[in-house]
Amino acid sequence: MSIEQRVKQFYDEAVKINNNTLPITKANKEITTLRKFIHNNQNFNFHEREKAKIFSTIEIYFSICNRKNKVGGDNEKSTLSAQNLIEDSLKVPLFTTKQKKTMLKWYEEEILPPNVDSLKQQEKKNQQKKYYEDSDNEDPYEYDEEEEEEE
């Protein structure tokens, strides 16, 4: 099986899992296999079409695992996570900068609690405010270099 065919197979299986044609329990196995595939073929020169399919596959698994959060029936309380897949994808030179930025947003969305972002933004605003308040004060060092040169 060629690499192009394998990429298509990954994408097709992710779509089937997303459409509930395949059982959701198969997602963990597919995510693990995709992680290994990306790692083993990170230096392969993929065509843009295959890169886009791999990225779309990761996006599907992220939406299945992390946005829907709970998978399986009421009896099964397992949760899936695409965190490791996203981490591994960020480490390889396979994806474009735009794709990596998107994956980084997903990663931050999954890892950081919701209040952490707002706390960081508030801290940044406080630092900026402090900086501007300090700049309004007079300079504690008074330089009289011009006066000394004139004498």
Structural commentary:
The chain is mainly alpha-helical. The protein is built from seven helices and no strands. α2 runs parallel beside α4. It is globular. Residues about 70-75 have low confidence and may be disordered.
Record keyword descriptors for this entry.
151 residues, globular, single chain, mainly alpha, 0% strand
Strand content: under 5%
Return residue spans where pLDDT drops below 50 for at least 5 consecutive residues.
70-77
Radius of gyration: 25 Å
- Span between N and C termini? 87 Å
- The average pLDDT is 78
Helix/strand-derived class?
mainly alpha
Number of helices: 7
Helix content: 55-70%
What number of domains? 1
Biggest sheet statistics = none
- Total number of strands: 0
H-E order: HHHHHHH
What oligomeric state is this? Answer: single chain
Q: What overall geometry do the principal axes of the alpha carbons give?
A: globular
Topology:
Layout: H1 3-18, H2 26-40, H3 48-67, H4 83-91, H5 97-111, H6 114-136, H7 145-150
Helix pairs in contact: 1-2, 1-3, 2-4, 3-5, 4-5
Biased composition (Acidic residues): 134-151
Region (Disordered): 115-151
Biased composition (Basic and acidic residues): 120-133
Summarize the structure.
The chain has 151 residues and is mostly helical. The protein has one domain.
